What does this fold into?
Amino acid sequence: MTARYALYWCPDPASNLWRWACRWLGRDPVSGVEYQGDPALRPLVEAPRRYGFHATLKPPFRMREDKDPQSFMAAVEEFARVREPFSAPPLQLAELDGFLALVLSGPSPRMDRLAADCVRGFDVYRALPDEAELARRRARGLDAIEEANLRAWGYPYVLDRFRFHLTLTGQVPVDPGVRARLESDAASFCQQPLRVDAVAVFEEPEPGASFRAVARFPFLG
It folds into this structure.
């Protein structure tokens, strides 16, 4: 199976934050609509555009041969059915490792726990990465904890290394005027606590394809 699946948090597709972010990135992974936007900004958003606006809870993985997407979806639906919604600290714009993203303005143990539960709880569906993928992950340089995470969970930046973030640019230089525009545009979304009331399943149908949202399961606990 060449498709990859991921568990993401993303805003309600009817929300102003979702609509603004999809227009900024140039693509809506729920509806499939693509936006032209400012051609000058295309290089800035090219990398995150493919993934869609999201915060990663369980990073993309290939399905094990003895598992199938239908059983995975059913498991995620049940996971969400007993999960309680919660509020996290408001968002703020920040620079992380050379890219701009919306991050939480303070710690959120419940968000950390949600991400950890997704990583651990659905690992039974994850196929082991091949050597090429491991080498690609290691190319950036990993510390001992990140290497242990890579071996155990297929991705370095989980559990103690998890950082909730909603990526807005690639790792390219950002003009100060563009950053000021982002700060101004995002200000209205950074005033209130962040409502966390669902988890989304995204799919990459084939290597290099754009990720699409295939299901969003509300927390009903």
Q: What stands out?
A: The chain is about 35% helix and 20% strand. The chain has a mean pLDDT of 95. Residues 7 and 96 are 21 Å apart (CA to CA). The two ends are 33 Å apart (CA to CA).
